[in-house]
Amino acid sequence: MDEKARPKPSVAYLGPAASYSHQVKQCVRLQALLYEKYLSSPYLNPFNLLDAFAAVQASLSSFAVVPFENSTYGTVVFTLDLLVDRESAYPDLLVCGEVYLPIRHNLLGHPSQRQSQGPSPEHESEKDNRAATESSLGQLPKREHDLRHISTVYSHPQALGQCEHFLSQNLHGAERRDTSSTSKAAESVAAEGPNGQAAAIGSGLAAEMYGLTILAEGIQDQDDNSTRFFVLKNAAADLKAHGPAPHQPLSTKEDGWKTLITFTLPQQPSGTLADVLQVFKDHDLNLTGIHSRPILQYAWHYAFLIEVQGKREASGHGVLNQALEEMGPKTRDWRCLGSWIDQSPQQVVSAQVRR
Questions:
Q1: pTM for the structure as a whole
Q2: Which of 14, 23, 13 is nearest to 203 (CA)?
Q3: Which residues fall within 8 angstroms of residue 198, CB to CB, at 6 or more apart?
Q4: CA quadruple 207, 212, 216, 220: dihedral positive or negative?
Q5: pLDDT digits (tens, 9 = 90+) for 309-322
Q6: What is the DSSP string of 119-135?
Q7: Cβ–Cβ contacts within 10 Å for residue 12, how many?
Q8: CA atoms within 13 A on the CB side of 119
Q9: Using CA atoms, how far apart are residues 84 and 325, in angstroms rounded to an integer?
Q10: Is residue 63 helix, strand or coil?
Q11: What is the dihedral of CA 172, 108, 115, 148, to 10 degrees?
């Protein structure tokens, strides 16, 4: 392709702007994964995850940042489906890195018109009672604004799930509406204007960007709430291998890497899944995750996605390569979705200690 005709480097993420996927680009660990020429590249903000996958597959974007799982609410199911790739739409995509981002949710919206006239005695009494209850539970009040005008809460299903306790306690009767991202939720609430009766769960950056007020801060169920994001690349693209930044410890041991593998099983005989998993045990390889999603060819049959500590070597040698060679005949089909340096918090701390 003519260099002038080649698309400009870019990184796709789940938009619009101010989503948590967007904020991952500020993370030092992500910057260490990307080539120097991409650090100042524009960021494309497709409105859904499918667009992000498709942009990298079509080489419209050099990378994509997608949420994979949350420490409180679990795996992002739609990302799982796209990785399993049941329709073989993304044959060239690989996971080349991961980023862990602390997630602090806020309730965003417009203050009650009644509150602008001053709190009523009833509201003050309610506020005092709530504070006493939360104090007895060892919790601090997380809101100062009157929320009685809020009838609808918008956000991504993951964010709604991560704030279940706050919503149940403070907005029990409010309707919950799913959006494609937390920033899309903020955008929707802003569009309703200052007299609207909706709120969004999102970041402080989203409040600032869309002109909303933080009605309640830090409403996630767990203070250590965090989300793991995958960085995707196109394996067929002409990209050179790029290691971590100097401050990031690089382990040559199997436990310093992770590899993602997807596979399906023959319909017969029974016990095949156990046979596949036994291969990794026999090679002393630790599985850090296993997921299943329905396949399209047969009802009640599944594709499996497993994450294992270890690196698939391009040379064909190594413990994981041997395990994959033994695993293959036990499956109907399988595919390796990439190897990357383990950036889990405990792994990074352990590596720093070793260093």
A1: 0.82
A2: 23
A3: 109, 150, 151, 152, 153, 154, 188, 189, 192
A4: negative
A5: 999 998 889 999 99
A6: --HHHHHHHHHHHHHHH
A7: 25
A8: 13
A9: 20
A10: strand
A11: -10
